[in-house]
Amino acid sequence: MNLFRFFILGLLAWLVYRVLMSWNSDGRPAAPRPRNPEQFEMMARCLKCGVFVPRDSLSDRGRCRNCEKSA
Ligand SMILES: [Zn+2]
After folding, report:
1. Most buried pick, 19, 29, 48, 60, via CB within 10 A?
2. Whole-structure pTM over 0.70, yes or no?
3. Which pLDDT value is given to residue 60?
């Protein structure tokens, strides 16, 4: 039965940790942060290797810097 008790204690500690971490300093549950759309860059796929990179960093042939270097 010792193992079962240890398991319950671990569960309780985890729950306390979750509750503490979900509260702000003013005691309310943390609200999700509003998204700032300007933080996101348009992503595009490299035509050669298929990796997603920011669209601005693709070359005019649609390749990432790595493929542009090796080609
Ligand atoms: Zn590439």
Report:
1. 48
2. no
3. 93
